[in-house]
Amino acid sequence: MFLKRTFSFDAAHRLIHYHGKCEALHGHTYRLAVTLRGETDREGMILDFVELKAIVNEKVLSRLDHAYLNDLLEQPTAEYIARWIWGELETPLARPNCRLHEIEVWETASSSVILRREDMEPGRVS
Predict the structure, then answer these.
(1) Is 66 a catalytic residue?
(2) Using CA atoms, how far apart are residues 65 and 120, in angstroms rounded to an integer?
(3) Residue 7 C-beta-side C-alpha neighbours within 13 Å
(4) How confident is the model at residue 79, as a pLDDT?
(5) Catalytic residue (one of 39, 51, 58, 66)
(6) Range 40-68 average pLDDT
(7) What is the DSSP string of 61-82?
(8) Which in 20, 53, 54, 88 has the greatest CB count within 10 A?
(9) pLDDT tens digit sequence for 80-120
(10) pTM confidence score
(11) Was 17 annotated as part of a binding site?
């Protein structure tokens, strides 16, 4: 079973290794979806939505919302933002009954990146 919750944050960045409009300072209202895969626990939940929200707020949104992403990542593409978020959430969300399965980051309403657990496996080309 999968459990998903979406979030949003506003941030600015510039893509210094890109040649085009996005190399200039600009901002986005990003959307983030965090998906867990697991089995229900004794309470009938994979993870309480309230607990998921608290962890994402503490580990991710408190650092990304209204931030200049280049202070955190040299080349803050949606791809690198998704990898960074994975690294921040994988351990705090691990439970005996579930674990992080997927991160999706939308840079615009029509453009997103999806990072799945299998993409993070050693030796995997991604």
Answers:
(1) yes
(2) 25
(3) 25
(4) 97
(5) 66
(6) 97
(7) IHHHTTEEGGGT-SS--HHHHH
(8) 88
(9) 999 999 999 999 999 999 999 999 999 999 999 999 999 98
(10) 0.94
(11) no
